[in-house]
Structure formats: C-alpha cells, structure tokens
Specification:
439 residues; alpha/beta; FAD/NAD(P)-binding domain; nine-stranded mixed beta sheet; six-stranded mixed beta sheet; 12 helices; 34% helix; disordered N terminus; binds flavin-adenine dinucleotide
Length: 439
C-alpha cells in the first residue's frame, strides 16, 4: 500500500478504528482454531509479547500455537503512541533501591537489549513500520529541567549511556518548536514506529518461522498441569508449556490465574488523536528534528509526526473504567494549549486503549506453575520491553530462566481492594498529580 495514502485496508473494520488501522500494511488473516492440536508451547495473546515469544521459540525449533482473541495487534500493540523509550518507567536509581545493585545493572542492560532487539527484528524481517530514531523529553518548568539534568548525568556517568544530552533555552526550538518548553533531554537512542505495522510484521515473521497463529480464538479456560490445555469455543491446544501474554486485555483463564495476575495490574485508558495532514513545511517547522516527544509531566502528553505529516497526539488517563467517548475533543484542546497554531487542522481519527500499570510502574514477570509463564504491566513502556519479555520467556523454556528471573525478582504488590476500591483511590492520586503538573 502506498505510504501516506491513508487508504483503508480491506480488513480495517476488524481493528479498532485509528490512523494505524487506516494505514495498516496488507496482512494475512489467520484462521480460527477449529479442533484439537498438540504442540510444545501454547501462547495466549497476539500482541508484541506473545508474538515475540512465539517467534523466538519457533526459531529454536519448538512447535508453537498462538491463540488471539481478536486479530494480532488488536490490543495495545496496535494502538499505542509508537514511542520507543529508553529504560523503564522508573529511574535506574529507583530500581536499584528495589533490587540488588547487580540486578539493577542487568535490568538496565536488558532495557538496552530490548531496543536493539526491536531494531534487529525490523531489519531482519524487513518490517515496514516507519522506524525512526530520536526522542525528546520536554521540560515545562525548572524542576523538570533539574530532574532531566540528573537523568542525563545518571545515564552517562553510572550506566555509560552516552546517547543523551540536555538542551536549554533558545536551543529547544531546533528540536521542537513549542514556546511552553524551557529545554529538555534529547535521546538519540530512543525513537518511534508505526505500532500496528510492527505487530503485523512480527506476526508474519512468526508464521514464516512455523508458528500456527489462530485469530478470533479467545481462550476461555487454561487448564494448568503437566500438559497445560488452552480451551477455546471450537477447539483446544495441549502443550508442554503455556505463555500468557494478554496484558491489560487478559481475560479470565483460570480462577487462580486471574486472581494472581490481575491483582497486580490495573488497566488504565489512554487516548490518541491524529489530525488531518499538514503541509510538509509546517510539519518540519513544528518538530524540526523529527523526534518523538513526551513532556515531563506526571500525566504525560506524547506526540510525534506521522510519515504523512499528521500530528499524532496522545495523553490523558482514565482510571474510572468508564469511557465517556469525549476524549477526541479533550485531547485536541490539550494539543492546542501547546500548539495554538494547529487550530485549523481537523481531527481525522480519535481512539484509545488500555495500558496495564503495576503499583511500582515496572513490568511483572512470573509463573503460575513451573511450565506456565506470564509477563505484563509494562506501564506505558511496552513497545520495546514487550519484545524482550517474549524473548526472555522463550529463553526460560529453551535454555535458562536466569535472565527471566531477574525480572521476576522485581517486587510487586497487589492493588488494594477490588476494582471498586482501587479505582477511587487511583482517581484521587491522579487528581493530585494533575494539580502538581499544573503548579
Ligand atoms: C493508547 C496507548 C498508547 C501507548 N503508548 C505507548 C508508547 O508510546 N510507548 C510504549 O512503550 N508503550 C505504549 N503503550 C503501551 C504498549 O502499547 C503496551 O505495553 C504493549 O503493546 C503491550 O503488549 P502486549 O503484547 O503485552 O499486550 P497487547 O498488545 O494488549 O496484546 C494482548 C493480546 O492478548 C489478547 N488476549 C487477552 N486475553 C486473551 C485470551 N484469553 N485468549 C486469547 N487472546 C487473549 C488480546 O486480544 C490482545 O490482542 C500504549 C498503550 C496504549 C493503549
């Protein structure tokens, strides 16, 4: 499909409507599971995590069946901001306070490996997903700038990561032309991509490697035992191992599994809009460096330009679980606060999805049994980390769980109360952080 044409692909209707779905590369449709299958590993969930695990396992000669409730990339993997961030949603020093110094350093190194893995897969499998490098975290106030200066120092001096630099004052406009910014951190090692096309490309790579992918095949029940069984409406898969990769969209699988996993994550709504295309010169003036941008607020605004010169603007969080459906106009208002000169641009697409957050905003890896693995709770940092999560679950099955267990040692506490109780307290906390962002 010609880039920038925004031609609706034949299958768009089956993904939530978004600019990504409208510009999806042509892709195969994978059949629904019908009947019984036997394999080495059954993977539940066809986002980046599940696809990555399946691809890696198939490369090692394992027979893999992947079951996806909708279409591959239907979940957060096909709707996200497309920002490839460095590290985790916590500073390395905060992570070092939770685990040993050695583990903190290994986690940092694996965060870097996650970005390298993504880069490598895009190149190896020729995935056409508009991958670009360069990232900017924008400071809106002196406190942000001080914190970003500390981050630059920490990354460079303690972790040997030299891709970051601080920008201040008038130099900021050469990166992004927004008068509200007083500076920020440029990270040449982070970047952006078309998230759905990346997911669709991973699926093709996995299928080529021998993975049997079944779409429209929600797993209603996972029977845990020597040979886990994933049961769908029209079939079942018996395997030696199971991987659960449903993240924010995970459905109840077994009572125990649901409780153990679901109590540690909270699905949170976040939203995006895509404007109509602007003139190429206007786009070049807006973000002259072409980077993806996120501001340093707690409730962040994140944005970038599409290859056809649209503003893809994301932000807002919704803890209530109730989607009022008005996020398009709200986000547009937020965008115009920073870029009033975009007022003439219509919004062509508005969509949203769920991010799974954990209490400490670090991913949770674990086992429901010796042969049942899961990884979830990427807390808005999943574009790169999910690929690594899948690869580490595969590694735990094919060779050693040593690196998987470094992640599994990150301590995670359940959210207090059920959904009814945890939601009001999160809403209150968020109101506080919003207020703090504004002060
Ligand atoms: C609007 C938005 C913006 C975001 N922006 C960014 C960003 O810019 N950068 C970043 O790093 N992260 C971002 N994220 C987060 C990121 O997208 C996720 O961390 C990541 O995609 C998670 O991938 P996943 O494979 O674990 O889960 P998903 O992609 O959600 O895939 C899970 C899949 O499992 C399937 N599933 C669940 N239960 C079952 C079952 N029982 N049977 C069969 N299938 C099942 C679901 O249908 C779904 O397709 C954003 C998320 C959203 C929603």
């Amino acid at each position: 499909m010609a880039r920038g044409s925004a031609v609706l692909s034949e299958r768009t209707a089956q993904f939530p409507s978004s600019w990504y779905a409208a510009t999806a590369n042509p892709h195969p449709r994978y059949p629904e599971l019908d009947g019984s299958k036997d394999c080495d590993v059954v993977v539940v969930g066809g986002g980046y995590t599940g696809l990555s695990a399946a691809l890696e396992l198939a490369r090692h000669g394992f027979r893999v069946v992947l079951l996806e409730a909708h279409r591959v990339g239907w979940g957060a993997s096909g709707r996200n901001g497309g920002h490839i961030a460095t590290g985790f949603n916590q500073s390395p020093s905060s992570i070092a306070a939770l685990v040993s110094e050695g583990d903190a350093r290994r986690l940092w190194a694996m965060g870097e490996e996650a970005k390298a893995l993504l880069r490598d897969r895009v190149a190896t499998h020729g995935i056409d997903c508009d991958l670009r490098w360069g990232y900017f975290t924008a400071a809106l106030k002196p406190r942000h700038l001080r914190e970003l200066a500390e981050t630059v120092e920490e990354y460079r001096d303690r972790y040997g990561y030299s891709s970051v630099r601080l920008v201040e004052g008038a130099d900021t406009a050469a990166v992004v032309d927004c008068p509200a910014y007083i500076g920020g951190m440029v990270d040449a090692g982070a970047g952006q991509l078309h998230p759905l096309n990346y997911a669709l490309g991973l699926a093709v790579a996995a299928a080529d490697a021998g993975v049997a992918i079944h779409e429209m095949s929600p797993v209603d029940r996972l029977e845990i035992g020597d040979r886990p069984v994933a049961v769908t409406a029209r079939g079942e898969v018996r395997a030696r191992y199971a991987i659960i990769a449903g993240n924010a969209y995970v459905r109840p699988l077994t009572h125990g599994a649901w409780q153990t996993m679901r109590s540690r994550i909270m699905p949170v709504g976040t939203y995006m809009i895509a404007t109509e295309p602007m003139a190429p010169q206007q786009a070049a003036g807006l973000i002259p460096s072409g980077v993806a941008v996120a501001d340093a607020n707690f409730v962040i605004n994140y944005y970038r330009l599409s290859h056809d010169h649209r503003m893809l603007f994301g932000g807002g969080v919704n803890y209530s679980g109730v989607d009022r459906g008005d996020h398009g106009p709200l986000l547009r208002r937020t965008m115009l606060r920073y870029f009033p000169h975009l007022a003439d641009l219509a919004v062509d697409f508005a969509w949203g999805g769920n991010v799974a957050i954990t209490r400490n905003r670090l991913p949770q890896f674990g086992r429901l049994a010796g042969n049942v693995f899961f990884a979830q709770g990427f807390s808005g940092h999943g574009v790169a980390l999910t690929g690594l999560a899948g690869a580490l679950m595969a590694e735990a099955i094919t060779t050693t769980a040593e690196r998987f267990d470094i992640f599994a040692r990150l301590p995670h506490r359940p959210f207090p109360g059920g959904r009814a109780l945890r939601t009001p307290s999160l809403v209150l906390a968020m109101l506080w952080y919003r207020l703090r962002d504004r002060l």
